[in-house]
Amino acid sequence: MKIGIVSDVHCNHTGLLQALELLGDADELICLGDSVYEYRFSNEVVRLLRDRGAHTILGNHEEGFLGPHGARARQPDWIDHSLLQWLAERPKRLELSVGGKKLLLVHSTPWEPQGAYVYPHDSMLARFGEAEADFVLYGHTHHQLVRRVGKVLVINPGSAGEARDQGNGRQLSCAMLDTVSEEVVVTDYPEVQLVTPGLVPGVHVDARDKPRQDG
Fold first, then answer.
1. pTM, full prediction
2. What gap in Å lies between CA 40 and CA 61, rounded to an integer?
3. Domain 2-209 has what CATH class?
4. CA 189 – CA 134 distance, rounded (Å)
5. Strands across the sheet with 101-105, in order?
6. Is residue 166 a contact partner of residue 142, using CB atoms and an 8 Å limit?
7. What pLDDT is stored for residue 215 in this prediction?
């Protein structure tokens, strides 16, 4: 089975659409969290994930937006509250069984407390090999990675919404996993202007002009 993987979309609807076009023949779609951006919400992004039946988990940006500090940000009339509720019902981690193989989906780490940034060079990556899974899929760092750690194949697709990885020339990226052959193809694509819904209905702002919450 072919699994399309995206992460850290950060309200970038155009970036997500580009990823889905590249992942067109995927049997299943996975989003590894941070579909929203700080205290901003995108009806377009969340609707697309919901309508595509994407296996979606929550990241640190959803935690802020859906938590007490995000109460005011959730009030605007332009937010589709059925989409907001759908997002709020997503888990923080998810285990899937595909063809007899186990996939573990997390935003940052398989262990608690979550939140650490585990980059490709980080010694903490060794701990991913302790997971009871054939594949561990994670995001958070915006840095792509495909590496076998012990018996576990660890995959980070990079970001489909906000490019930060110098290793691929600061491009967006997504990944395709073939669970039978265990082949992973990571595809880079250029980032277009990142826009997100503003706090005023109908107004869009460049998210890079706003203070950034890492991850």
1. 0.89
2. 9
3. alpha beta
4. 28
5. 94-98, 101-105, 135-137, 152-156, 145-149
6. no
7. 64
Q: Work out the percent of the chain whose per-residue pLDDT is above 90.
A: 88
% of the chain surpassing 70 pLDDT: 89
Residue pair 105/57 in contact (Cβ under 8 Å)? The answer is yes
Measure Cα distances from 24 to 5, 41, 52, 62 in Å: 11, 25, 11, 26
Decide: 207 and 191 in contact? Cβ < 8 Å.
no
User: Tens digit of pLDDT for each residue in 192-208?
Assistant: 864 444 433 333 333 33
CA distances to 62, 80, 110 from 65, rounded to whole Å, are 5, 15, 22
In this predicted model, what pLDDT tens digit does every residue of 118-145 receive, in sequence order?
999 999 999 999 999 999 999 999 999 9
Tokens at 140, concatenated: 């958070």
Tokens for 170, please give them.
């600061």
Residue 211's contacts (CB-CB under 8 Å, 6 or more residues apart) are 38
The token pair at 53 is 């039946």
* 201: DSSP letter: T
Alpha helices in 115-183 (DSSP H): none
Buried b (16+ CB within 10 A) or exposed e, 55-74: bbbbbbbbbbbbeeebeebe
The single-letter DSSP state of residue 208 is G
**pLDDT, tens digit, for every residue of 74-87?**
999 999 999 999 99
Strand 94-98 to 28-31 pairing: unpaired
